[in-house]
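From the pipeline queue, job 12 of 40. The input is one protein chain; the requested action is below.

Action: predict structure.
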Amino acid sequence: MDTKFESWKITDFNLNGQINLGNKFGLIKIMRSDDGTLILVGDAEYGVIDQEKPSTASFLRPDSILAFVLDIGIQREKMLSRESGFYFGIRLIREQSLRVVSQKDFDENIFEKIGFLIDSYSRSGDKPKETEAIRLQLLFDAYNDARLLFPNFYAESYLTLMRIIEAIGITRGGYDFASFAATISSRLNQDIYQKLNAIYKDRIEKATELFNICLLEANQKGWKCYDKMVKLDIAGKVIFACFYSAYQYRNKFVHLGFPFPDTVKDSIGLGDDSGTAYLNPALGISWTKIHRPDGLQEGDLIDIHQVVSEEEFKKFKDIYFQLLPTWYFMKRFTREALLNHVEELGKQ
């Protein structure tokens, strides 16, 4: 019987010889070609879905399991060949940004301001300033890492952006985090609110309702963030609800071992900066459990929110998911928070 092979270029590591993978779960070998390319060879027919009868879906991802066994990282960068072995050459890693970058994007004043601040603080001889210089540089390093990770590792990038906002605001808890985020930029709040209100009026209502519930609890429990929350205008309330939803996902979904729903990276309308750049138009998301040639049937999908408790299921599915900020949303506020922080330090 003829065996059909596929091969991929993978991110380089220090391979000694080659590794025979025994055709386990469709992987055959790792080898280096004569031109130095590190290649993963696989069985093209492994895991092919039956075209005549239902077949059970699998969540198996052999690459990450293999990477764990070898204790390295494996990432497929390019497909080299398919089935009969002819060269295919399709890239599997997307560019970190499709935005055109040119000389006009270089702001010399901002570049100099940030560099001078870190440099002068680190040479000041004042321990708090020296520490702040280190912290600030590490925050810019983290932002750079987040940009490099997106979109190929969107969940890690999203987490990093959230961590930067938390670090700048020195926040504790979901209410504190969302309160700080909602006060980063009233200009941004208004801009995003207007775009969302133009197409997502129902979600604006959900956001306002969620904010009011949070405000009542903050008041009843005497939390310090109440003073910030009570001063927010309608735009700020909506932004608060969006960031609070992201925090709930981070703490009660992502920290269980699941990634942020991939809709956070699927922003559309970036060109005209519309509301769909900030909240994804999707109304739900599921994992496939059964593949059927004749189409989906009830029970063939698993709602991703089944991992949370029954009492929180509806909140995640009908509220938090609808208000979950896109990566682009999170990135804009993180960038603004960093710039604001530099401005504040420069005044000291």
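Job complete. Residues 5-91 form one domain.
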